[in-house]
Amino acid sequence: MTNQTAPVSHNYCPSTIHLPHYATNTTPVFLLIAQFGILWIAVLGVALTIIHRARPTASRSDQSAFVWMCLTGSIHLFFEAYFVINHQSLASSQDLFGQLWKEYSLSDSRYLTSDAFLVSMEAVTAFCWGPLAFFIAYCIAAQHPARHALQLTMSLGQVYGDVLYYATSLFDFYYHGMEFCRPEGYYFWFYYFFMNFIWIAVGSYYAYQSAVEITRAFGKLGELDRKRKSN
């Protein structure tokens, strides 16, 4: 007689996805979000302290950019890297990041099934954009001339990654009839849409800022070159 493993009950969509090692979260949702929020606040506080000490005369714009780079770098390099490293065992994880990913996966169950696109995309985000964000923060503090070239590169990469993230999910929904989000609007609009749209909005802003600064710098360089040639 063949032993068969009984299907594990879960609340993810579609209900047919196979999660043999799934374990229900042991921490209430509000505590998970509160703990994650505390980590964010701690990063913000440390980042503000560093920029105030390293560059006391920094403009509010540069202070905000420094804080954002530290925050997005921390999320990429630690939270998203956690997913990349642990994607195969994520469904059974009970530590803070594991439970947070399982909670988020109610809006996109692909995170629990080692989806090839998500693992690849998150790997690039974690191990390329994560360290780069911290280096850009250093460039802001040190007023390094490479700041805007790197900021433009990373910001465009973040926007591109999010656009692909939305696009692949929508493609599966409209062409394959696959729905990965639970029907409750909270999961779609807050988890799936809003939490990812932050990087599209902020990334677009910093990409635009850097494009303007680079264009202005080349404009000044061209003007100086014309003056030099006319003398």
UniProtKB/TrEMBL annotation:
Similarity-based family: Belongs to the EBP family.
Provenance organism: Aspergillus aculeatus (strain ATCC 16872 / CBS 172.66 / WB 5094)
Superkingdom to which the source organism belongs: Eukaryota
InterPro entries named in the record: EBP, EXPERA
Keyword Transmembrane helix: yes
Protein name: EXPERA domain-containing protein
Keyword Transmembrane: yes
Lineage per the UniProt record: Eukaryota, Fungi, Dikarya, Ascomycota, Pezizomycotina
Gene Ontology biological process: sterol biosynthetic process
